[in-house]
């Protein structure tokens, strides 16, 4: 090739000399490429490119270089970068080119920028203005380029700058611009979902765009959104089905066809969306049966792309609620795939089978022979996929065969990723289905020796935990352990130098822990083997530590050998080894201590860790008495440092007007400053704690294997957190309130099957009793014992320390299938959409439902029953045939609290389920009404509520013995949100029996938003200032300012206060400060400042996600005004 | 989502690399090398999908590639993309290149990398498939280069002979990428 190229290229210059400038420009690149192709060695190439780069460097900085030349240089440096050479000097020039050049230069400049700079590169800041200018440009090409670059490289913090402009582009007359804008917004959604929450309605508009291309782009967004929360978009199912029908029916313009298949990529996308929507949802699935059938039928042409559609179809059919007829067709399709001679289709067939076997294992049986053939296929990918399939169909009978196949494959495999992946699966299978001990140990040995040090840590951890924890029968456990010890001793007797480190670690732990079980082997022999291992050069120092601790465990009675060993290691370079050697010597000299520290066979007993370091209390008080400075947490030290500083070094730091300066609101300083200051004022107490920590290590000799050992102690640390934390002042924990709640413990009722509920309510009480600081987070007691509902802001029964609260005995249940009903407040509707949250809160005082005056006949007294403890649910006579006012059924004490409207969740012929949210100060109460719509009694009604992201505690009424005809039972759940999520969906089910023995289940689901969990935080301006400084996570954004009436700031803040439960602390001039808290106690502070026509909002909170969530709700609230 | 698009020749020389996720310079080079290593050792009669490769592999990513004459076109995608769909997207890409360059060959990609990038930008934006319609892609790419056209077309026409018949080292005339495929479209690779 080079000959001809050379000739042509040498001829070029003469040709072009008289031609245009562009020819000359391209010339340099040609020369470069030509000379590269002539070179033979990598080294030559390197030096040539280095030369070229330095020449370019000179050229770019020369003032005489024209834009055109610059453009050519950019292309050359792109080429060099692609080859892997650093051309970072040209980055800034790429930005310049994009900024200053004409359209052509711009294009190269933007291209270079998107290739050179990645998200987060600091130079990108210089691009913002250019992009802004181009986004506003009337030139389509410029706008396109700007959108492309925005979607490629813009980081999270730069999105707000361009967001409004990109948003505007959604209504641009040109479809290409709209399409690109949609994709850019999708990219923003991926990077920072909360920033684009407010334009969900516009996404709907894009979906309905008259241009199919724009609609196609919007599907990217919907696929993602539906993946995240399918329930929120069920209402779109019909639209997607219609679109797919039209596409399949050939209604799109012809140029969307690809090899006479109408818009295949669009079809694939739609099928994926439909399968997500129809999963576990019969009514939604029914909508799509017809179109799926149609797709299956149409896609029979013999084209690659039709197979792609078929494959998606088959997956969809198996994902949604099953329909026999479709399943049959899909199974036939899979058969065609698997049996196809085309290897790509075979691969997809296997993939489909892997997916399908979970639903229908028989299908795999049909294709047994093909699968076995594929197992020996020459193609690595096919083999791997087959093993994946086998993994899915493994059971106790076929485990040894399948594992054998997998191990064979592993031995011949060289790809690290595959090894890690498959070895994990083998270990999983071995653990699940092992037929006997020897097989299990042998298989695990294989896994460890093949997987080696690539294996994930938890494989060895799980294995050791399994050995240590054992099962019920001690005898069996010991047999397994004995077998392991035997097998390892044999291995160690052989050549151990080739064994992976991870395996040696496992072996030494097992031998150290259990070799005493093997009576016919002398302990000194074991010690000798381990010492031999220690001496090996290939053993890493981490492994040495393992071996040494094993030796420590079995050193009992072998003092001479051990002392010698300890002596030799105590001069080691490695400090940890040295320390261990010392421990070893101590312990071997003092057998009593040895017995106490390392009791035999007790490796798995939980260790008490005093994480509050209370044993240091004496030391601390002594030190304080001796005049040491009390410990101050870092932020306080920093704050003090700030106060002392006369000059504010940060030019752009935030500061409130003078009137507020008294409360010492200062900006947090940069991280470097922070670390310096904490270093400066680190005092003796802190040091002593460090010392304490190291003694702790010495005492806690036992090596803890899993994560479990340490886990339960977490909240002690929280309670013991430094007292003088400024935020503590804000939350005086209501002792009195706690006491008040303690008395009325629900007493055990005589009803039998309420035990579970009783347990949970008892637990709730206990957690209230035990730790006051956690009180805010633990469940609220049954609300009826309160005499009067309190005004909103008065309760501050929460602590700002956002430690994890103990999981109370929340009734966590398995996942229930969700029904299509939702009352999700976050469902993005077209402007006419409803929003239940804000209005219901504010309007509730004005009297609840006006529509029907329902007879609330009896039994209200039962609910009110002054001090009587009712564990039995309240059953209220009620006539559901007329539209009911269920709010009247709320217990009287709840009725006065702010609550939402009653929303119907689901219903079937016999039961209907509705819910109402009651906003209590300590928790969100979810009141679920179960009404019997039949005349007959319904027995054994049990409600289960499930939500992974919330803490749920059933307060009462979740189990009812008998629900009489036409009556309603009320059950309460208290919900708390620990980690903020913008919206959380819950699922639940009601199981009941109409006829004895036949249990029916009715599922329901719904959505809650952060707004439900937010309560006002009443603080003074002073406290606010202190708290502000102590918070670490902040978010800033500009919001809409309501200017319709009076003082815009006041109006806006009031609007926010009305919809969200916020507390306006103070308004000073053009700035306002607002505070609220999450129910679990974490505060969120908002600082608002009028900035032109916008409201600059700055939020801070100890929880990283909380500001985002609150910001989102603020945006919504203002948008609705 | 598409994570990366790589084109390299039979010797592993990169001809185009576009990453839609951030990697360091070194990692990118390593990915190119590793991908070439993985792809090049595969026979002609195996499937076009490949899992694994620690860097780009991880989690649920996979490589989907096609081999045309001297070039490998490799797309690295995650599980949200349809395998066969991407396979045909590569075909669309190559056919588009073929139309834009009239019988495209490796040299076109080298000499006009900016143009190839621009065409690609019309197909895939920020990792998402933007357009699959060939004529639409060409229209957009051409619209952008119209202004350039006036300057460059003279040069392009002179360049053309290069791509038509460049013999390789053995002296054989090297056909264009798509010439090997007799029909404009065939599902299996050449």
Automatic annotation (TrEMBL), chain A:
<feature type="region of interest" description="Disordered">
    <location>
        <begin position="769"/>
        <end position="818"/>
    </location>
</feature>
<dbReference type="InterPro" id="IPR002553">
    <property type="entry name" value="Clathrin/coatomer_adapt-like_N"/>
</dbReference>
<keyword id="KW-0813">Transport</keyword>
<dbReference type="Pfam" id="PF14807">
    <property type="entry name" value="AP4E_app_platf"/>
</dbReference>
<dbReference type="GO" id="GO:0030124">
    <property type="term" value="C:AP-4 adaptor complex"/>
</dbReference>
<comment type="similarity">
    <text>Belongs to the adaptor complexes large subunit family.</text>
</comment>
<dbReference type="InterPro" id="IPR011989">
    <property type="entry name" value="ARM-like"/>
</dbReference>
<keyword id="KW-0472">Membrane</keyword>
<dbReference type="GO" id="GO:0006886">
    <property type="term" value="P:intracellular protein transport"/>
</dbReference>
<dbReference type="InterPro" id="IPR016024">
    <property type="entry name" value="ARM-type_fold"/>
</dbReference>
<feature type="region of interest" description="Disordered">
    <location>
        <begin position="717"/>
        <end position="756"/>
    </location>
</feature>
<keyword id="KW-0653">Protein transport</keyword>
<dbReference type="InterPro" id="IPR017109">
    <property type="entry name" value="AP4_complex_esu"/>
</dbReference>
<dbReference type="GO" id="GO:0012505">
    <property type="term" value="C:endomembrane system"/>
</dbReference>
<dbReference type="InterPro" id="IPR050840">
    <property type="entry name" value="Adaptor_Complx_Large_Subunit"/>
</dbReference>
<feature type="domain" description="AP-4 complex subunit epsilon-1 C-terminal">
    <location>
        <begin position="1015"/>
        <end position="1119"/>
    </location>
</feature>
<keyword id="KW-0333">Golgi apparatus</keyword>
<dbReference type="Pfam" id="PF01602">
    <property type="entry name" value="Adaptin_N"/>
</dbReference>
<comment type="function">
    <text>Subunit of novel type of clathrin- or non-clathrin-associated protein coat involved in targeting proteins from the trans-Golgi network (TGN) to the endosomal-lysosomal system.</text>
</comment>
<dbReference type="InterPro" id="IPR028269">
    <property type="entry name" value="AP4E1_C"/>
</dbReference>
<feature type="compositionally biased region" description="Low complexity">
    <location>
        <begin position="794"/>
        <end position="818"/>
    </location>
</feature>
<protein>
    <recommendedName>
        <fullName>AP-4 complex subunit epsilon</fullName>
    </recommendedName>
</protein>
TrEMBL record, chain B:
<protein>
    <submittedName>
        <fullName>AP-3 complex subunit sigma-1 isoform X1</fullName>
    </submittedName>
</protein>
